[in-house]
Amino acid sequence: MKKCWVIPPKQNAEFVAHMEDVLEIYHLPYNPDIPVICMDEKPIQLISDARTPIPSSPSHPERFDYEYQRNGTANAFIFTEPLRGWRKALIRERKTKQDWAEEIRSILVDGYPDVPKIILVCDNLNTHTIGALYATFPPQEALILAKRLEIHHTPKHGSWLNIAEIELSAITQQCLNRRIGQIEILKHEIDVWQHKRNGDQKSVIWQFTSEDTRVKLHQLYPQI
Known about the structure:
- By secondary structure, this protein is α/β, with parallel strands linked by helices.
- Helix content is 35%, strand content 20%.
- The chain has seven helices and five strands, in the order H-E-E-E-H-E-H-H-E-H-H-H.
- It has helices at residues 13-26, 97-111, 130-134, 139-147, 164-174, 183-200, 210-216, and strands at residues 36-49, 68-81, 86-92, 118-122, 149-153.
- Strand 2 and strand 3 (86-92) form a beta hairpin.
- The longest helix has 18 residues, at 183-200.
- The model has no long low-confidence stretch (mean pLDDT 89).
């Protein structure tokens, strides 16, 4: 029996440095002027039925054929402010550094136009950098955006530290648990999901601390 798992490196100073950095961010007092926002992304296959499903009846559930048709891929972006109970989910056709940069600008300019800075927690991907802003916008605009963005990366093999993964898991279970073959339908379903979840104000208060990791995950720390 085998199970796919994210296995963190043992006795790795870089890993624990990023881990404790993110954990300290999660335990900052709530400050609406400098909000902590987590972001993540997920590729999605667009899949439609090859044959028309048979509708459900009083004696049978809906039945669909095992064959399906691939219609390309899309990419889901999720931004969440855990302590506020807010999230923004959206679909783009690609997952390039330009896509990421454009969504960061949208968060800063449209979502948080009046705050001096946001603290962003995200995975350590080569598209999640200040350089992506300069690859997408004129340098004058990129600098303005960069000054309002403080990035903290989760460690490699440590994506479980990203609170946005909780939101991606919720999307997968509540919205993506069926075949969706067209990107416009996918965008609509994601939009409906986020409005409902925001209405419920599902917040996350992270309990795990740096002190906890030094005891429970002591094998990850260098032996000095």
